[in-house]
Amino acid sequence: MNKTKLTFAIAFLGMLITAPFLLAGDHFDAPAVSGTSSDLSSFYAFEGANTNNLVLVANLQGLLPSGVPTQIAQFDEDVLVEFNIDTTGDLIEDLVIQATKRGDTMYFFGPVVPISTGLQSEIATFATQSKVAISSGTTDAEAIVATNNGMQFFAGARDDAFFFDLNRFNAIVSGEVTGFNEVGEDTFAGTNTLSIVVELPKSMLGTGAIGINPNAPTTPIYSIWVETKRKQ
């Protein structure tokens, strides 16, 4: 069995899955990896059009200007993107879905019990393997989606869904105004990102942790976070 060891989790975004749609954003505030091929910009988790499915989205290299910067942006073969899923409530990953680029293809492994937890990872080559050709365009018509074992996969450039009124925020911080407008201005409209998307049946996640949410103690809870790890 071939194993590739990757160390040092150099970017991280996470959330508790308690609602139909959740997101985490990390634009501009990770100086150690900002502007690199391992820079995570946002993470989304939401129900699919099929409500029995969960969609996970990891965005890297966010706020890419359209045109040439987006066209030349590439996933890094030395960077592993790992979706971590805690099903027991101890904030330690019980399952992982790993994505790694080789050539013009993104390969996926899992969901599978990880070989190791924490900052070091090994690619679970023994797990269910899926792959998708990396899409070269940004339009829906150019998107390549692959299906395997009840899951769907995508990797490629997409419009960056991150919405933030940066100018208004700066005005609030400087004391010029006291709050945001009811309708904000998307400072980053028209920028792109490199996205990795996995849609999978919720049944693949197991039962989840019970008793964590005091408002819904019988509702199973999953803690999910995404990391990038660079090959050493």
Draw up the topology in text.
Blueprint: E1 5-17, E2 21-25, E3 40-47, E4 53-64, H1 68-72, E5 79-86, E6 95-102, E7 105-112, E8 121-122, E9 129-133, E10 146-148, E11 151-159, H2 166-173, E12 192-201, E13 222-231
What structural category arises from helix and sheet content? mainly beta
The helix tally amounts to 2
β-sheet strand percentage: 35-45%
Given as residue ranges, the uncertain stretches (5+ residues, pLDDT < 50) are: 1-12
Q: Distance between termini? A: 19 Å
Helix content: under 10%
Shape: globular
In angstroms, what is the radius of gyration? 18 Å
Order of helices and strands: EEEEHEEEEEEEHEE
Number of strands: 13
Number of domains: 1
Output mean pLDDT. 85
Essential attributes:
disordered N terminus, 6% helix, mainly beta
Describe the structure.
- By secondary structure, the chain is mainly beta.
- The protein has one domain (5-231).
- Helix content is 6%, strand content 44%.
- Residues 1-12 have low confidence and may be disordered.
Briefly characterize the structure:
By secondary structure, the chain is mostly beta strands.
